From TrEMBL:
This is UPF0183 protein CG7083 isoform X2. Belongs to the PHAF1 family. GO terms for biological process: Golgi to plasma membrane protein transport. Pfam families: PHAF1 (PF03676). The gene is LOC111362855. GO terms for cellular component: trans-Golgi network. It comes from Spodoptera litura.
């Protein structure tokens, strides 16, 4: 049984780890993975068809805990303990819920102090005690209903009849705007805090990515980021320091590292596995492999040419649940403006307006505006153990110097921006302004 400490308006955890309000989904998953054998039977709940309108939820049924994430920002906004019998809970070192201690109204008041009168829901027979950043919910027998109209002080119970907490929620702010937080499919209206300083971990985090383009070609990316810095609050420019960098096609690996820092991982593209069967394979040294810089907190991969060590491709990830790479990257908040190709219809050149594409655009809208008519390439990933991909195939559409990877629900999983072979410069364009 987990023995955890509650910090109202902030966290639930212990000395070794804690779930902090505002932390990213991937950081919560990393905590759970580090506790294999202690936290078991974890479920991830999301909507296939409406991933932006239904909360993303991590459910731990064997521990009675549910983590509710904002579906757009993918950061933790509510921690819910829905089965009090499966976990021990403390506040400021004082235990108020365990197999030996029942979390009655008197016990909660003794541990947390006096509060303003609670709220009673006569339809659901549920009584709520609300503190700042913390709420307790008590199921109440109908015969006690009249006493709740006048607040906590008027309650009268027979011996042993005091109700006990059935559910506890930790949230940010003074009031929990509960729409239906007890249901995994419901949308919880609690406010979302800033990313906590404890979750920065000396990494750059992305605010916005502007794709720099000429009329029909990509030139590079302008990345608006933030990281640790002195001050009082992120909104005041204190706790987080804003950083803006431009990375272009042709930039060297050294310049990219100077602009964005060292990558979280370097990945080398796989060699041709059939090369060993060629007669000249033993006489020729293996060719160098192109390599990626993976920036997971930016939602970005950068591909370098093995010979020149210059940027030749960018991959922007949207991190939708149900995709093969979900949880590897934070969502890249990009903005891509594409000028559609001119259409020659009956000898008349038709000009269309520019199309703005973001991480939240649906492909059916984008393809209609760009008039993408070609058939897609079907992409079916599989793991190294030859198991099938449980999420199914995605579909890749090419347009100008862009490849759109589209999921079956019509959301864009990733965008690849590449530089055609004939347009690559002979020297690096080293700009990190």
């Amino acid at each position: 049984m987990l023995d955890l400490e509650i910090v109202p308006e902030r966290s639930l955890g212990c000395d070794a780890w804690e779930f902090v309000l505002g932390m990213h989904f991937s950081q919560s998953v990393a905590i759970i993975q580090s506790q294999v054998g202690t936290i078991r039977g974890v479920q991830v709940l999301y909507s296939d068809q409406n991933p932006l309108s239904v909360d993303l939820v991590i459910n731990m049924p064997q521990d009675g805990i549910r983590l509710i994430f904002d579906p757009v920002a993918q950061r933790l906004k509510v921690i819910e303990i829905y089965n009090m019998k499966l976990v021990k809970l403390r506040y400021s070192g004082m235990c108020f819920n365990s197999p030996e201690i029942s979390p009655s109204i008197e016990q909660v008041e003794h541990c947390f102090g006096a509060t303003h009168p609670g709220l009673y829901d006569s339809q659901r027979h549920l009584f709520a005690l609300n503190f700042r950043g913390l709420s307790f919910y008590f199921p109440v027998d109908s015969k006690f209903e009249p006493g709740y109209a006048h607040g906590l002080g008027s309650l009268q119970f027979p011996n042993g009849g005091s109700p006990v907490v059935s559910r506890t929620t930790i949230y940010y702010g003074s009031q929990h705007q509960q729409a239906n937080s007890s249901s995994p499919g419901g949308v919880c209206g609690a406010p979302l805090p800033e990313l906590p300083l404890s979750c920065y971990r000396h990494q750059l985090h992305l605010r916005r990515c502007d794709v720099l383009r000429s009329a029909t070609a990509t030139q590079g990316l302008r990345l608006h980021m933030f990281t640790e810095g002195p001050g009082r609050s992120l909104s005041e420019g204190g706790a987080g320091r804003s950083v803006c960098r431009v990375v272009r096609f042709g930039s060297s690996a050294q310049r990219v590292c100077a602009a964005l820092g060292a990558p979280a991982r370097t990945y080398y593209k796989a060699d041709d596995k059939m090369r060993i069967h060629r007669p000249t394979a033993r006489r020729r040294p293996p060719p160098a492999s192109d390599y990626f810089f993976n920036y997971f907190t930016l939602g970005l991969d950068i591909l370098f040419d093995a010979r020149t060590h210059q940027v030749k491709k960018f991959v922007l990830h949207t991190n939708y649940p149900g995709h093969y790479n979900f949880n590897m990257y934070h969502r890249c908040e990009f903005e891509l403006t594409v000028q559609p190709d001119k259409c020659d219809t009956n000898s008349l050149v038709e000009s269309r307006g520019a199309v703005c594409i973001t991480a939240y655009s649906k492909w059916e809208v984008v393809s209609r505006a760009l008039r993408v008519a070609e058939r897609p390439v079907v992409l079916n990933r599989a793991s190294s153990t030859n198991t099938t991909n449980p999420f199914g195939s995605t579909f890749c559409y090419g347009y100008q110097d862009i490849i759109f990877e589209v999921m079956s629900n019509n959301y864009i999983a990733s965008i690849t921006l590449y530089q055609p072979e004939g347009s690559r410069p002979r020297y690096a364009v080293n700009s990190i302004a």
